[in-house]
Automatic annotation (TrEMBL):
Pfam families named in the record: BD-FAE
Protein known as: BD-FAE-like domain-containing protein
GO molecular function term, any single one: arylformamidase activity
This protein's UniProt keywords: Hydrolase
PANTHER family assigned: AB HYDROLASE SUPERFAMILY PROTEIN C4A8.06C, KYNURENINE FORMAMIDASE
Organism per entry: Aphidius gifuensis
Residues in BD-FAE-like domain copies: 67-163
Record has Hydrolase as a keyword: yes
Domain of life assignment: Eukaryota
Length: 294
C-alpha cells in the first residue's frame, strides 16, 4: 500500500508536541531517557539483564531489590512502535515508585523486523508469566502491569489469551494481577498499513484481526475481569492516539470491572507524560502509586 503522509501524521506522536519539532523532540527524549535510566541504575539497588528468553533482548531489569519480597510490584513495558527503543529508555517511573516501596520490573523484548509482532506478544506473555510466578513464590500479593505507547498494547495482550490466563490461574498466580496501566497506547493495527511504521512491522492479516484490541470481540470468559484498568493519554499526543485511548476505554468496560480514563491537560504530550513520572507529586504519579498501594 502507498504511504499516506497526512494519515501517518495523525499517528505520529512526535508531530504534536508544543515543546519541540518532531526531530528535536525525539533526539531530546531519547538522550534524556537513557540518562535517567543510567542514573537510576547507579542510585537504586537493582539486578539487570535477567534472562527470560533465549535472545539478547529477552531480559528484564529489577529495581528495588533491597525491598522485602512481599512488596507490591509494577511490571513495565516500553514503547517504540514495536520497532525501536529498549528497557534502557524506561527509567522515568523507577525512582518515584521504588521510593514508595514498590518494586519495578522493566521488560526488554525483540523488535521488528528482526521478529514479528506476534513473536513480541509471545515474548511479553512469557516475561510476565515468569515474573508473576517469581513474585508468587516470594510472597508478593499485588502486581500491576503497565506500558507506554506500543508497550500499552503489549500490556493489554494478556487480556486476550484465555489459555494463558487459565494456566496462570491453575498455578494460583493470576490472582496477583490487580490492574493494568496503559499510557498513550495504540490498540488498532489496520490504520498502520498505509504508514511507514508498517515497513518494519510487516503486519499480517491474522495479526490485524487478532491483535487489534479496539476491534477484537472477546467471546470467552475473561479470568482477569476483576482487575482495574487505567487508561491515560496527554492532550498533545497524536490525535489518533487520543481517539484510540478513548475508544479502548469504552471497549474495556465490557471486559473488566473497573475502568478509568484520564486525559491529561497542560500541553502534556506523548513523551513528557512519562518524563513527569519522575515527580512523585505529579498527578499521574500519585494516581499510579495510590492504585498500586491500595
Amino acid at each position: 500500500m502507498a504511504i499516506d503522509m497526512e494519515h501517518e501524521k495523525a499517528y505520529s506522536p512526535s508531530s504534536w508536541s508544543k515543546r519541540f519539532d518532531s526531530t528535536e523532540l525525539l533526539s531530546y527524549f531519547n538522550d534524556y531517557a537513557v540518562k535517567v535510566t543510567n542514573d537510576c541504575r547507579k542510585k537504586i539497588a537493582c539486578k539487570l539483564d535477567v534472562p527470560y528468553g533465549s535472545t539478547d533482548n529477552t531480559k528484564y531489569d529489577i529495581y528495588g531489590i533491597n525491598l522485602s519480597n512481599d512488596v507490591p510490584v509494577f511490571i513495565f513495558i516500553h514503547g517504540g512502535y514495536w520497532q525501536e527503543c529498549s528497557k534502557q529508555y524506561s527509567g522515568f517511573h523507577i525512582e518515584t515508585l521504588v521510593s514508595k516501596g514498590i518494586k519495578v520490573f522493566n521488560i526488554g523484548y525483540d523488535l521488528c523486523p528482526t521478529v514479528t509482532l506476534s513473536d513480541i506478544v509471545a515474548e511479553i506473555k512469557l516475561a510476565i508469566e515468569k515474573i508473576v510466578k517469581l513474585c508468587y513464590a516470594q510472597g508478593t500479593k499485588t502486581i500491576w502491569i503497565g506500558g507506554h505507547s506500543a508497550g500499552a498494547h503489549l500490556a493489554a495482550c494478556i487480556l486476550y489469551d484465555s489459555e494463558w490466563q487459565s494456566e496462570m490461574a491453575q498455578e494460583n498466580c493470576l490472582k496477583l494481577i490487580k490492574g493494568i496501566i496503559l499510557i498513550g497506547g495504540i490498540y488498532s493495527l489496520e490504520p498502520l498499513l498505509t504508514t511507514s511504521y508498517n515497513i518494519p512491522l510487516k503486519l499480517t492479516k491474522k495479526e490485524i484481526e487478532t491483535l487489534s484490541f479496539n476491534h477484537v470481540n472477546v467471546k470467552y470468559p475473561i479470568l482477569l475481569n476483576n482487575i482495574k484498568a487505567l487508561i491515560v493519554v496527554g492532550e498533545c499526543d497524536a490525535p489518533k492516539f487520543i481517539e484510540e485511548s478513548k475508544n479502548y476505554s469504552k471497549k474495556l468496560i465490557d471486559m473488566v470491572d473497573q475502568v478509568e480514563f484520564i486525559l491529561y491537560r497542560n500541553n502534556t504530550d506523548h513523551f513528557d507524560i512519562m518524563e513527569k513520572l519522575m515527580d512523585p507529586t505529579n498527578g499521574l504519579s500519585k494516581k499510579i502509586i495510590t492504585n498500586i498501594l491500595q
